[in-house]
């Protein structure tokens, strides 16, 4: 269903009354009825009506025959995801309150009355330790540690293998500690064939959108290399213009203003970006200089006119892929990393009668006439990266820094001539 996830705990005392109610009535909703709800949503809303008419009737019949074997909601969820996967479409899967993306997407779609009602029209929150993970060969590894989050403060690192949580096999929510305000003990292995290490972490209850913004802010830094200052910001979510505005403000007024070159990290997290965000690289915007009575000048330049890199990998999805496509095609920034996910359909969230959710592709998408769904964007410079036991080292980021340090030197040499 999903190959990345932010580790979080949904503690009973933090669950909204509406969510608890949804869970309590789940047993009262028959799996036959839920199946009809899910298939009805697909038949009425899936973006490719021809595909539904041609293929979905047979798919539905095969999975309906398996309903008699379903005994638990977890098994039903897995069955629905297996069925939806046969549509071969991104932004299409089944979510329960035991999935962290249930809360992440609910926060994005909370203005839809049916979604807001799941949380009694209050702010969507969940306890989180701030880690994005990746499943490789049936093992779970930390792919990214959200800057400023509980996990970073506790010492967890990119590349750590998660062995267990509180002594039990890792599960998204159900395996986490059920007592609010308490620590969870995450047991990790930092190197292959080395004894595990246990680390206590106290989850923080946060709105998923705010969590992404806080991580973006905390990610900002200047990396010194070959006498150059390489600016860096990780945009974990582009699902809202506030994330792009934070990037602009940091470039114009903040810590990245004096950088010689720029890295914008688009790996992991949520998409949502619009192509016009590439306008930050438009050099045909004038520079404003204001001078006061004392002669002091204030230079305001809203554009980035120096070398830049987009960092991508195969978890870069949705609108972020559109940025990578445009940057590469029009040579606005150099794209470095691995091929993007190819997940570019437009998705919508549908609530079910038991409180679960269906995320479904309802729109196709092309950019400059190109359909990236199932294809993705191949970077200008490909840098494979196996995160397993990397000990916090990031070869893709290192390559971007080395490239920009050399690029900046070349640019200044040409200017001098």
Characterize the structure shown:
With 417 residues, the protein is an alpha+beta fold. Helices cover 31% and strands 23% of the residues. It has helices at residues 17-25, 31-45, 49-64, 73-85, 100-108, 113-118, 150-154, 208-219, 241-252, 319-329, 395-416; strands spanning 4-8, 93-95, 126-136, 139-145, 161-165, 184-189, 197-201, 204-206, 221-225, 228-234, 261-265, 288-291, 297-300, 308-312, 334-337, 346-351, 357-363, 381-382. The strands form 4 sheets. Strands 1, 3, 4, 5, 6, 7 and 8 form a 7-stranded antiparallel sheet that branches. Helix 2 (31-45) runs antiparallel to helix 3 (49-64). The radius of gyration is 23 Å and the shape is globular.
How is the secondary structure organized here?
Layout: E1 4-8, H1 17-25, H2 31-45, H3 49-64, H4 73-85, E2 93-95, H5 100-108, H6 113-118, E3 126-136, E4 139-145, H7 150-154, E5 161-165, E6 184-189, E7 197-201, E8 204-206, H8 208-219, E9 221-225, E10 228-234, H9 241-252, E11 261-265, E12 288-291, E13 297-300, E14 308-312, H10 319-329, E15 334-337, E16 346-351, E17 357-363, E18 381-382, H11 395-416
